[in-house]
Amino acid sequence: MVGVLGLMVLAFLRQSLLSLVFLGIIIMVIAGVGRIPFHMLFKNIRPFAWLILLTLLFHGLFTPGNALIIIPVTGWNITVEGLQVGVIYTLRLMYMILLSAVMMYTTSPLEMTDGLESLLSPLKKLRVPTNELALMISIALRFLPTLVEEADRVRKVQVSRGLNLEGSLIKKIKGLVPLILPLILSSLRKAEELAVAMEARGYRGGEGRTYYSQLRYGLEDGIAVLLLGATMSIFLLLPGKFLFNF
User: Fold this and answer.
1) How far apart are alpha carbons 124 and 209 in whole angstroms?
2) What's the confidence (pLDDT) of residue 137?
3) Helix, strand, coil shares of the chain as percentages rounded to 5?
4) Which terminus of the chain faces fewer neighbouring Cβ atoms within 10 Å, N or C?
5) Domain segments of the chain as ranges
6) Is 60 exceeded by the pLDDT of residue 118?
7) What pLDDT does residue 117 have?
8) Which of 30, 17, 26 has the alpha carbon at shortest distance from 232?
């Protein structure tokens, strides 16, 4: 988790295209080691394609420089410098999506919960309820697919009753109300049922709790940390400007 966060920070730390290409190769190597099919990995970019294209177009239009494409009638220009900046920002956005996907494909929600609780354990001295925070994240990850299925079921039920989701933007927004309200009520009902079930099983927070899965630092973890540290060092030594001057 710390490594993914560090690689995301590195993506925004440098403005060099060479550095970003190097980082992209590292992400592909990590995905290969994790045995993640590339078509599954890049499938996660598809929902954000409109945002990536919008980012590229925005920088191409509003960054001053040498005109590459002149849009008729409007008088707008897409500049070479704008496309260069747009490529850098789109690569950063893609890397954030890919790194998140790599972690989700290689780490189970339970492992992420245990890891997050372990990372936050020093905050227990400040009386921060780290166990409850980790449990909330675990429950959210667990019920996210259920929530998606429930939303699809509510949509089909409402459409069968005559709900029309076609038309203007305002009409589509109004049509979302019959979908959102049942979904909220269903979520609240499931949350209440889960709370009652946890209390019936004796859950009283993190105090005195034991763990079935024990996190242990092994040889493979040490090798992974060393490789990640070496990768970050090489990335910082590559030619190119930093986003901030140290």
Assistant:
1) 14
2) 78
3) 75, 5, 25
4) C
5) 1-107+216-246
6) yes
7) 80
8) 26
| DSSP 8-state assignment for residue 239 | S
Helices and strands (H and E) in the chain: how many: 9, 2
Mean pLDDT, range 126-152, rounded to an integer: 79
Helix or strand or coil: residue 72? Answer: coil
Q: Judge whether residue 73 has pLDDT over 70.
A: no
Question: Which of 46-50, 140-144, 191-195 has the weakest average pLDDT?
Answer: 140-144
Task: Report residue 239 as tokens.
Answer: 């030619």
| Dist CA 153 CA 195 (whole Å) | 24
Nearest C-alpha neighbor of 17 from the set 102, 86, 99: 86
pLDDT beyond 70 at 245 = no
| Confidence at residue 246, expressed as pLDDT on a 0 to 100 scale | 35
pLDDT computed for residue 207 by the predictor? 66
The count of other CB atoms within 10 Å of the CB of residue 53 is 12
Distance separating alpha carbons of residues 154 and 152, to the nearest angstrom: 6
- What DSSP string describes 108-135? -HHHHHHHHHHHHGGGGGGT--HHHHHH
Q: Two tokens at 107?
A: 């780490």
| 132 vs 123: CA distance, rounded Å | 12
Q: Which residues of 200-230 are buried (b: 16+ CB within 10 A; e: fewer)?
A: eeeeeeeeeeeeeeeeeeeeeeeeeeeebee
In this predicted structure, the answer to whether residue 244 has a pLDDT above a threshold of 50 is no
